[in-house]
């Protein structure tokens, strides 16, 4: 019998592949198409709205089922987010992300797939994005965390 | 509002969107995880032994997508990508997306697709914020500056 961890790795690989195929088919790996959607006041390309609609129409049923479970179907925990605070990091982070998204037309998933297809600017984007993510980790560790610790000691 | 009929691809985009939904559904139901790219990538920085293999497996699958797509799709099906931003803008955009998505705890996949699918108010606020900022920045770049 196959080990359970192997089944999980195969499943994760195949889901990643399927997600990547969905991004390419939907046109989201083309930054021009993303910016075409964000350009409400120019020639508007509504495609991205249909991508989101199609994805959520399926996702809604899956998550309705997921909410009723604590284990996944391959064996193991089913981890749903527990955080429900609407706070400053959520809004400020999303605004920064949206600004970057509008500037180049890449968000993390499509950028990763475009990089894999050999698009040079997508590679540059992914490297800069990873640098940004590391920057966040460092800020979180050395600026936010000590401040929080201080607050707790007062 | 003027629709860009030349680039609008309703059927490919709905079908592609459904694939994204199926992948998100499989990930939560089979693997028990939220399909969010910024979180999957960010969790590797720095990598933690027990928590890395699933991330690498998923990202490797995504990485193979262009190859598989080109093998399956008829030649010339997908239009070539239009990357208009210059290199410096791409770098600035990447930094903003990296910091912003980690600060917000999600991007278009985690908040936009999965979050809205599970009717999370937090993800709705995130999605409205990043879309709003996107609309504003594109307006400024294309029509104001």
What's the arrangement of secondary structure elements?
The complex is a heterodimer of chains A (154) and B (145).
Chain A: H1 4-26, H2 31-38, E1 43-44, H3 47-66, H4 88-104, H5 108-116, H6 120-153
Chain B: E1 2-3, H1 10-31, H2 37-42, H3 53-72, H4 87-104, H5 108-117, H6 121-144
Helix pairs in contact in B: 5-6
Q: Strand pairing plus helix content of chain A: what structural class?
A: mainly alpha
Count of strand segments of chain B:
1
Compute the number of strand runs of chain A.
Answer: 1
Return the domain count of chain A. Answer: 1
Q: End-to-end distance of chain B, in Å?
A: 21 Å
Distance between the termini of chain A: 56 Å
Strand content of chain B: under 5%
Major β-sheet annotation of chain B: none
SSE topology string of chain B: EHHHHHH
Uncertain regions spanning at least 5 consecutive residues of chain A = none
Q: How many domains is the backbone of chain B divided into?
A: 1
Q: Return the string of H and E elements of chain A.
A: HHEHHHH
Mean pLDDT of chain A, to the nearest integer, reads 93
State Rg of chain B.
17 Å
Number of helices of chain B: 6
Oligomer: heterodimer
Q: Shape of chain B from CA axes?
A: globular
Work out the helix count of chain A. 6
Write a short abstract of this structure.
The complex is a heterodimer of chains A (154) and B (145). Chain A has 154 residues and is mostly helical. Chain A has helices at residues 4-26, 31-38, 47-66, 88-104, 108-116, 120-153; one strand at residues 43-44.
